[in-house]
Amino acid sequence: MSPASEERIALDVHAHLAPVLKDRLAGIDGVSWNDADGAMTIDGYTLAAKSVYRPEALIAWMDEHRIERAWISVPPPLYRLGLDAERGQLTGRPGADTGAEKPRLAFKRFCIDCIAHDAGALQAAATMHGPEHVLFGSDWPFSMGLPDPHKQLADTDAGLRRLIFQDNPRRFLSSW
């Protein structure tokens, strides 16, 4: 077995899970749960990734890919359509600070996930944000993410891969 095939991933910062609490869903306009299909429909949109409702599926996937822990977020379709996502970001308001730090400098403080689908693009992101700010993110259970992370990141520089899989999350978690 090669060293890359034995690598463990300390933290997935971009996994999704959506609990299904049928009694609560029944009271939300525009949201319905179909028990037979195991699918949720929100404002007419049915979320196709049925694994997102099954914690055991996430745990099995993490075990299969040697992922030690995951931070979970609810997938975007569940945010509900029509939310005012720009509120608080408009710069025309009286008193708003329009002399903010330049994005190239601010980017050095942001943590990002590694979903780039190209080793060169991932390296460019690491250069922009700093390699110590890149963390592993799978976008599980969605196929546009990294469903087979060790295979999909195999062509990434071994040093950067170690930072992403082990060193960065351990350093980040130890600061909490």
Question: What this model shows, in words?
Answer:
With 176 residues, the chain is an alpha/beta fold. It has a domain at 3-19 and 51-78 and 102-174. Helices cover 31% and strands 13% of the residues. It is built from seven helices and seven strands; from the N terminus they run αβαβββαβαβαβαα. It has helices at residues 3-6, 22-25, 55-64, 103-106, 119-129, 149-152, 158-174, and strands at residues 12-16, 31-34, 39-42, 45-46, 70-73, 112-113, 134-135. The strands form three sheets. A three-stranded antiparallel β-sheet has the order 2-3-4, with no helix packed on it. The protein has a two-stranded parallel sheet with strand order 1-5. A two-stranded parallel ribbon has the order 6-7. The protein is globular, with a radius of gyration of 19 Å.
Q: Please report the distance between the alpha carbons of the first and last residues.
A: 34 Å
- Helix/strand order: HEHEEEHEHEHEHH
Total beta strand runs: 7
Radius of gyration: 19 Å
What's the rounded overall pLDDT mean? 80
The fraction of residues in strands falls at: 5-15%
Strand order across the biggest sheet?
2-3-4
So how many helices? 7
Structural class: alpha/beta
Q: Mind describing the biggest β-sheet? A: 3 strands, antiparallel
How much helical structure, as a percent, in the residues?
Answer: 25-40%
Sequence stretches where pLDDT stays below 50 over 5 or more residues = 81-91
* Shape, per Cα inertia axes: globular
